């Protein structure tokens, strides 16, 4: 007779190992904690211009308050901010999240920020891929849109490498550093996600 598989005794703890949806090969995405205030401040100093806006300096206290505010926000909804954490060091290397979302029409836009020392290591590609998978496969969104300044060659190449399609541009749409600049419009549809071979790195 075949040997019987032993049953666990009552009250025994059964170990079940699962890989988190939010953990990849290089990074994991997690919620913002109050202790991330220093990292948020560092990212803000390194990236003082956010899109077309030049941001004035902010105090350390304002970054602490912002980190506490983000940490206390409810996780429900389709607009949120996550920390990108390097698995090998446990260090926050950036943030990302959807900042506009229209559930009725099925589209969203997102933003990402990486610390200067953590670029071109594949962190952004993996983080954005994880976010897209969540928004397309779990939240049922159909389209992701991105707006990129026309002179931001790194971001243009990054989104093309991810399979985003250039739809056109808004001519002289924003005012940056004393002159008007074009904004390039990209989009990626749910059925296009994952169909493009990976190129480059970010």
Mean of residue pLDDT values: 86
Give the terminus-to-terminus CA distance.
Answer: 58 Å
Overall radius of gyration: 20 Å
Number of strands: 9
Oligomer: single chain
Q: Count of helical segments? A: 4
Textual characterization of the structure:
- This protein starts with 26 loop residues before the first strand and ends in a 13-residue tail after the last strand.
- The longest helix is centred in the middle third of the chain and has 16 residues, at 123-138.
- With 202 residues, the chain is an alpha+beta fold.
- Strand 4 (82-86) and strand 5 form a beta hairpin.
- It is 24% helix and 31% strand.
Write out key terms for the chains shown.
globular, single chain, 4 helices, 202 residues, two-stranded antiparallel ribbon, 24% helix, alpha+beta
Provide a quick synopsis of the model:
This protein has 202 residues and is an alpha+beta fold. 24% of the residues lie in helices and 31% in strands. The chain has helices at 37-46, 60-72, 123-138, 153-161; strands at residues 27-31, 49-50, 53-54, 82-86, 92-102, 107-114, 143-149, 165-176, 179-189.
